[in-house]
Amino acid sequence: MLKTLAKRRLGCAAAALSLALANTGAWAQTSIEDLFRNSKFDSATLSPNGKFLATTTNIDGRIQLAVAELDTGAVKNVAGYDTLDVTGIRWINDERIAFSIIDRDGDQNSSSSGLYAINRDGTRAAVLMESPSLIRGRMDSANWASEPRWMSMLGRAVNEDPNSILAVGFYPNNDAVLYRVDSLSGKRKEIAFDVKGLASGFVVDQKSRLRVVMITNAEQSHVAVWYREPDAKDWRKLTEHSRFEPAFNVLGFDVDDSTMIVTAPMTEGRWGIFKYDFVTNKPGVLLASDNQVNVDGGLVFSPDMRQMLGIRMQTEPPKTLWFDQSMARLQASVDRAYPGLVNVIYPSNEGVAMLIHSYSSTHPGQYALYHPDKKKLQNLFAARPWIDAKKMAPQLVYDYTARDGLPIMAYLTLPAGREAKALPLIVNVHGGPWARDHYGYNPEVQFLAGLGYAVLQPQFRGSTGFGDVHFKKSFAQWGLAMQDDVTDGVNSLVKQGVADPKRICIMGASYGGYATMMGLVKDPDLYRCGVNLFGVTNLFYISSSGSWGDKAATYALDKTLGDPAKLRDQFNATSPSKHADKIKAPVFMAYGEKDYRVPLVHGEEMRDGLRKNGKVVEYMELEKEEHGIAKEATRYRVYGAIEKFLGTHNPAR
Fold first, then answer.
1. What one-character-per-residue DSSP string does 189-204 give?
2. Partners of residue 382 on adjacent β-strands
3. Residue 454: helix, strand or coil by DSSP?
4. Cα–Cα distance measured from residue 268 to residue 375, given in angstroms and rounded to the nearest whole number
5. How far from 146 is each of 116, 136, 143, 176, CA to CA, in Å?
6. Could you give the percent of the chain with pLDDT greater than 90?
7. What angle do CA 319, 320, 323 make, to 5 degrees?
8. 184 vs 97: CA distance, rounded Å
9. Which of 17, 51, 417, 508 makes the best surface tag, with the fewest CB within 10 Å?
10. How far apart are CA 497 and CA 519, in angstroms?
11. pLDDT tens digits, residue range 562-574?
12. Cα separations (Å) of 565 from 245, 540, 546, 561, 572?
């Protein structure tokens, strides 16, 4: 038994844990095409009256919007494009749907998306804000800069106009503007407020009244939180804080519109959810917390906004803390019906069916309806119906301690059909780096486990969601303590005999690609090979506003990555492209031709340095891809090449 295997087991009982560690299941590999093709269904949402289900579905390789009438089963494709994908669907009312589109095949950043609306029968389509990637080519730079970079629906407006929505437009100068938008005509009207400065965010109450505005200073280093009472004109500043040391963040208002809900750090550094105390002017009554992770969002209200029902919590595994006892009883009933799955229930109006999304680390996800009148569950569809959950490898939680005593949580996936002893290991480092891996189905992890590798996903310092101490210990630690955390996780598995010290590779994308290359530089005898996708290789290239675009990014990078003017020697020491001569292991690298976040120069400089020093390197430039792989065909090609590369340089069997 692994001594430091977490006391928490994702979705299974202790007996199942022992079985997983014994690896007595039959090994079966799933094809690259089945693992990496787009989901059949990406998301689903019920209309307020519960009669219609809107979904994003894969049709001929494109993600389109479809609406099903639940009583009859009739399905209609509502919005679809030859070169665009639909995302972010939300009901405005029982007839109208808002959505965004992504231009994955274009020359601009695919993450930039517009805001659109259409009736559920496909009529009365309207452009609320066109995608920048679509308009940039036909507008001069001055006019393009006057348009929002993107727009996000904040909620439905109330009372007199059921077709209007509230939406936030985010502009190139980092100023946010709150609009009331007519979803039929696309006309928008700015909602004014009497607070000076650059707005960065807004919070409205249950009646859609603007109650909180976040104002950023000119240097983008500090944020002030301004508040006003319902229907009042005067604003008062509650707090002003550094971007990296907030006193609290406002989540929303309870149904009485006088109780403000915030998330704030607790004594031990992790975040909890509180009611705000306006008398003491600080977080008051604690509503929810966890001793492992931050609880910092996910308020669940009844659709009529008359009750706050619960809080979504990213625990291990994720769960919903229900304040409403009827919802808590329903959750228990659904969990019994779908054992071993995380079952997310979306409350509905009284008497209306509820949508349930279920998933696990081995199950890509499924949707069902709960009919309260019949007290019955109705299965709808699976996200990836071709995936057999029984052939997937379960994700375990693995805790270890870094060399300086910092606790580190990791995910560990063990290949089926093999004893948990002397396994070939791939440490898979997440991007960001100020992000984290989550519990759930991961095609890349299943790909590696299916090949026969154990997969370690360390949540090294800087990974978000584990408290302020864990986050801040990453500042100016690229290639240093952050890298040591990864190494310490590998060594802990070697020490326990789970990993074969002679068969270890490192792999990752974006920051994970950086950690791959830095791992090969810093610990050249630890790794047998490395796989770098879109990885940073020269820290000087990302430490200026010219690379990342604005003051906010420059401030954030100087604070977290470090100021290159003050840390020149450190940046030189921790830029892998400057140390290609130290790398011993073969390297596979792939970079996107249109990647504006980590431009091709990172890959080209690293590739040329390796070749100059006589190292083994395979290099792919991905046509029209950006910071990630959007196209199915490219995914098949890249992971096919990775499979061959790993088989050559670190065979699993």
1. EE---S--SEEEEEEE
2. 366
3. strand
4. 43
5. 19, 11, 5, 12
6. 71
7. 150
8. 11
9. 417
10. 21
11. 988 899 999 999 9
12. 24, 10, 15, 12, 12
Respond yes or no on whether the N-terminal peptide bond of residue 433 is cis (omega within 30° of 0). Answer: yes
The whole-angstrom distance between residue 615's C-alpha and the CA centroid of its chain comes to 35
- 216 close to 205: Cβ distance less than 8 angstroms: no
Q: How far apart are CA 448 and CA 561, in angstroms?
A: 30
> Can you name the residues that pair with 43 across neighbouring β-strands?
56
Task: Tell which residue, 96, 97, 61, has the closest CA to residue 81.
Answer: 61
Domains belonging to the chain, first-starting first, are 14-31+388-538+575-649 (3.40.50.1820), 41-182 (2.130.10.10)
Token digits of residue 135 = 């308009």
Give the contacts of 165 (CB within 8 A, at least 6 positions apart).
92, 98, 117, 128, 153, 154, 155, 156, 157, 180, 181, 183
Give CA 573 to chain center in angstroms: 31
State the DSSP code for 152: E
User: Maximum distance among all alpha carbons in the chain?
Assistant: 71
Separation CA 87–CA 135 (nearest Å): 18
> How many whole angstroms separate alpha carbon 420 and alpha carbon 24?
10
Task: Answer whether 497's CB lies under 8 Å from 533's CB.
Answer: no
Of the candidates 346, 645, 394, the residue with the CA atom closest to the CA atom of residue 506 = 645
d(CA 252, CA 146): 30
Kindly report the pTM of this predicted structure. 0.91
DSSP 144: H
Report the distance separating Cα 643 and Cα 633, nearest Å: 15
Query: Please, are residues 411 and 397 in contact by the beta-carbon 8 Å criterion?
Result: yes
CA angle 153, 156, 157 (to 5 degrees): 120
Of 138, 233, 221, 134, the closest CA to residue 174 belongs to 221
Cα three-residue angle 316-87-360, rounded to 5 degrees: 25
Q: Which helix (H) or strand (E) holds 648?
A: helix 632-649
Residue 195: both structure tokens together: 């607070």
Side-by-side strand order, sheet with 236-242: 198-204, 210-216, 222-227, 236-242
Name residues of the chain where pLDDT drops below 50.
Answer: 1-27, 107-109, 138-139, 543-549
What amino acid occupies position 480?
A: L
Q: pLDDT for 84-111, tens place per residue?
A: 889 999 999 999 999 998 876 654 445 5
Q: Within 10 A of 31 (CB to CB), how many other CB atoms are there? A: 12
